[in-house]
Amino acid sequence: MRLKGIVSRFLFGSVCLSCGCGEKPLDPWLCENCRELLLKERNGNAVSENAFSLYNMGPVSRALIHGLKYSSMPGLAAYLVKSAGDTLKNFKEWLSLEGNVFFVPVPIHPSRFRERGYNQTEKVALALAAYCNGKVWKALGRRSFSVSQTKLSKSERVLNVAGAFVLKKRMNVKKEDCVVIVDDVFTTGATTGACAYALKRNGYHNIKICSLLYEKPISAELDFVADKQEDWLL
Ligand SMILES: [Zn+2]
Description:
The chain is of the alpha/beta class.
């Protein structure tokens, strides 16, 4: 085995993160077939007027997001961003930047942070900022809920989620600067919408959203639990 292969297996593991095969050389987490499938899962367009996702949820991107969130593999964030290729170029054009751009990661629950050791959306924000010559701004904090979201009615959840984030750290960001809220998965936009609300309340008005993956909400009934399900259920 060539030295490169030995180092890669030591750093990234020896089986494909998506299909589990171990025969072919990995790149560095995926076999050739899954790498090709991942590139087909890229999404070249905005998912709504103010939101852009780099990939549509598919079997390979789902496996990588799982690794990013639950298997201590923070490097997958930069891998996914970099692998987006032309989609990344589309994203930059879509931002139509004229001035500064700041990437604001969606904060995760402190208990998740302790468990995971990092916030995956910060890793995504760092990779996007590097590509767009922007900066990461950890602007938001998460309010803790006194009552579990599942015990509330839908209208109560709307109110609760809307006030879930607060501006906790100011930076030298002008009100007209472009601020991009960064999340790992975008479904209904309830989470990122609540983040946007916290920023708008503080006068920032040029707000956009970028996520790694877009996943269609399962149903309107499940809209809030679909977004960051595990966080809201704490
Ligand atoms: Zn594979």
